[in-house]
Amino acid sequence: MRKKVIAGNWKMNKNLEESQKLATELVNIIKDEINNNAQIVICAPFTSLYAISSIIKGSKIALGAQNCYTKNSGAYTGEISTEMLKSVGVSYVIIGHSERREYFTESNAFLAEKINAVLAHDMTPIFCCGETLSQREQGIHIDFVNAQLSESLFHLSDSDIQKVVIAYEPIWAIGTGVTASTAQAQEMHELIRKHIASKYGNDIAEKIIIQYGGSMKPENAKELLSCKDVDGGLIGGASLKARDFVDIIKNA
Ligand code: PEP
């Protein structure tokens, strides 16, 4: 039985004070209201990570970052290494979010290096993949997502691939209010698992956690999270309100 992983991606929202307030609210509500065994993660801005790590200590929440660089240290002005993230208590790192692919032109090959950097520090990468609306309309979405997976993940060993969480995030559903139907989500998750099985075999593919991301909210979380191959959610907008995020986690 795969564990459900529910991760909040705060994106470039919440200054230090706002982050501390939201993290404190989450700790308190989750303590009172969540009794399932979902892994909860909050992926906060870099500037809030250190402060949040002490707020969530001893709670059910793990700390995540939204990005990292490939090198450990050196003359890379403005970048943050996985070693630095680990040192402030981070255990999950989002890799290849569609916003980074689009605005920062991150390629599949570069993301493969980031995956290696995260795994090298014993943290869990949350690897994002997903197609645009136009790719779906042209019927090339399955090949596109499979190529994202092959080019960024398929160099990994049998043991390392099992440490990766995959987030299927159709770009047309991110921040748009449009959610994939349960049939669309289940179909893509099953195909992603099949693609992994084609390289690593069924036993390994069955163990991989595949989250859905794209306008998940309390109203649609139950049906999405009950799909056979949907093992959690990567949540943007709805993770910025403690009440909404917790109401999603309740369905895990
Ligand atoms: C995301 O950014 O990963 C995301 C899924 O955003 P939203 O939930 O706002 O669509």
Please characterize this protein's 3D structure.
The chain is α/β, with parallel strands linked by helices. The model has no long low-confidence stretch (mean pLDDT 97). The protein has 12 helices and 8 strands. It has helices at residues 16-33, 46-55, 82-87, 98-103, 108-120, 133-138, 141-153, 158-161, 182-200, 202-207, 218-225, 242-249; strands spanning 5-9, 39-43, 61-65, 90-95, 124-129, 165-168, 209-213, 232-235. Helix 3 (82-87) links the parallel strand 3 and strand 4 (90-95). The chain has one domain: Alpha-Beta Barrel (TIM Barrel), CATH 3.20.20.70. Phosphoenolpyruvate is lined by residues 9, 169, 174-175, 213-216, 234-238.
Provide the helix percentage: 40-55%
Summed up, the domain count is: 1
- Please state the average pLDDT score: 97
Helix/strand-derived category reads: alpha/beta
The fraction of residues assigned to DSSP E strands is 15-25%
Helix/strand order, N-terminal first: EHEHEHEHHEHHHEHHEHEH
- What would you report as the Rg, rounded to the nearest angstrom? 17 Å
Roughly how many Å apart are the termini?
A: 13 Å
CATH top level label: Alpha Beta
